[in-house]
Design goal:
Layout: H1 17-47, H2 51-76, H3 78-82, E1 85-87, H4 88-91, H5 108-115, E2 118-120, H6 124-155, H7 159-165, H8 169-174, E3 180-182, H9 187-192, H10 200-210, H11 218-232, H12 241-256, H13 261-272, H14 287-313, E4 316-318, H15 337-363, H16 373-401, H17 415-450, H18 452-460, H19 482-491
Antiparallel strand pairs: 1-2, 3-4
Helix pairs in contact: 1-2, 2-6, 2-12, 6-15, 6-16, 10-14, 13-15, 14-15, 14-16, 15-16
């Protein structure tokens, strides 16, 4: 077949139908298996009442549908994009490689641009490679998000034992509110009230190093739990703080796994900065790593600031130390700002891994995208270290510290309880509206029937005529005398406000 087509690639006109049918069957079978697997996963999450994770799965489906639509547009507009011609000097600017090299055979459209002294904006081969890059980006973004979430939840499993310990007699005795002690004698005070605590320049390196050793300590968890429950519930409540954190984290995961507009804008900027002139291999892979370290340092610093704030109010405490949740500990007084930073870090790292894998797959390990061995090592190391550090170190810190804002999230109740309260509220609204309507009608009937002015005005005016909308018994629409009108009014339902106008009576 290759000889018959003159060495060119074969089209469907010269391809056996059994080959086309086989490829279509395999693609359809794989798609159905993936769709069925997602359906079973959604059914399992619904059975376990994990509504937030189910919403995250639906968000992934919508993102995949959007990426599929983008790929379809690229396929349909492939020829039109390649027909756009630009000057050659413009085409040689911001290249990913140091010099313009193209070893691919030129097609008919590109040769038309060359006849004009120009080059194509993007060749058909480039459009196809861009489709492949979009697929790698979607795959690694979802994979990185799930890996980070799984590592974080695995690290937070130990919190179940800490939560169970709060119900023991030993814990209640050690935190007896009848006991008085100095704040620096408590375990929380011994950990955070040091000579360096009052100096910001000394706190920063200590908080930076603390995120790598233990991340969340038991004494920090118990103290923050006590402050949260005291601020939002009654002191000594048996509220399960660990389950509340897990529900809140699942809702945050729904945000992290999605791809919003600003994420797409950053993805376009990342592609642009891959030009050789920016030398991105020396700084771009380190951006998510540095941001992750800054976020971890900030979270550790919030715990220390809470301890200092409690120490400034009183040096003697009753029972256990009490920290007060507040938004002013966070950047811009917004605890959720850290969530957007975590989202950016996760996406930026997944983009780096996706771009490295795509360039390796299309151009080989050694290409203009990976010029040196150091570049390959840095990208691989950052791609592995960042998800582990984010999931096992920073994510547990984030899940705990962000609950210490001024307001309490709606994850305080289970999904079933929230759904039940919403149904109860809607039913109560309907009942109140129905009762108000009945009460208005009854009060109007009683006021009209008991009003002496109404009866006197009717009796004193025998020539009075009332405008009455004709019904089935009076099709002509003529105005009846007062006596006949009164008879009609008695038989008419007063509460409907139909048949006569009170302003005319």
């Amino acid at each position: 077949m290759a000889g018959e087509t003159g060495g060119e690639s074969a089209t469907l006109e010269t391809t056996p139908t059994w080959a086309v049918a086989t490829v279509c069957f395999v693609l359809i079978a794989v798609s159905i298996l993936i769709e069925h697997g997602l359906h079973l996963l959604a059914k399992y999450l619904g059975k376990k009442r994990r509504k937030s994770l189910l919403q995250a799965l639906n968000r992934i489906k919508s993102d995949l549908m959007l990426l599929g639509f983008i790929s379809l547009l690229l396929t349909v507009c492939e020829k039109q994009i390649s027909e756009i011609c630009i000057p050659e000097d413009v085409a040689e600017s911001f290249l990913p490689c140091q010099s313009l090299t193209n070893h691919d055979e030129e097609d008919e459209v590109e040769s038309k641009c060359l006849e004009k002294g120009k080059v194509s904006l993007m060749s058909r081969a480039g459009v196809q490679q861009l489709q492949m890059l979009i697929f790698f980006l979607a795959f690694f973004h979802v994979l990185s998000s799930f890996l980070t979430f799984s590592l974080g939840t695995a690290k937070m499993k130990r919190w179940k034992h800490w939560e169970a310990e709060t119900r023991t007699l030993e814990y209640q005795f050690s935190n007896d509110p009848r006991r008085f002690q100095f704040i620096h004698q408590t375990s929380f005070g011994k950990r955070h009230l040091k000579y360096w605590s009052n100096f910001r320049l000394l706190r920063l390196p200590v908080n930076f190093l603390r995120q790598f050793f233990g991340s969340v300590y038991k004494v920090d968890y118990l103290t923050l739990r006590h402050g949260f429950i005291t601020a939002h519930f009654s002191e000594g409540s048996d509220f399960d703080f660990q389950k509340y954190i897990m529900r809140a984290l699942e809702k945050d995961f729904k945000v992290v796994v999605g791809m919003r507009l600003w994420i797409w804008i950053f993805s376009v900027l990342f592609i642009f900065f891959n030009a050789y002139v920016f030398r991105n291999y020396a700084w771009l892979p380190f951006i998510p790593f540095l941001l992750l370290l800054v976020v971890g340092t900030k979270l550790q610093g919030i715990i220390t600031k809470m301890c200092l704030d409690s120490s400034d109010k009183s040096h003697v405490i009753r029972g256990s130390i009490l920290v007060k949740p507040s938004d002013h500990f966070f950047w811009f007084d917004r605890p959720k700002f850290l969530l957007h930073l975590m989202h950016f870090i996760s996406f930026q790292n997944s983009f780096q891994v996706a771009f490295f894998t795509w360039s390796w797959y299309k151009f080989g390990l050694r290409s203009c995208f990976h010029r040196k061995t150091e570049d390959i090592v840095i990208r691989l190391a950052m791609g592995v270290v960042i998800p582990i550090l984010c999931g096992y170190v920073t994510l547990p810190l984030y899940a705990l510290i962000t609950q210490m804002g001024t307001s309490m999230g709606n994850s305080v109740l289970p999904e079933g309880a929230i759904a039940g309260l919403k149904r109860w509220r809607e039913k109560a609204r309907r009942n109140v509206a129905r009762r108000n309507q009945n009460f208005t009608v009854r009060s109007l009937d009683a006021s009209v029937e008991s009003s002496p002015s109404f009866s006197l005005s009717v009796e004193a005016s025998p020539s009075l005529y009332i405008d009455y909308v004709p019904d089935n018994d009076n099709e002509s629409g003529e105005i009846l005398p007062v006596e006949e009108n009164l008879a009609e009014i008695k038989h008419h339902k007063f509460g409907s406000f139909q048949g006569f106008e009170l302003s005319r009576v």
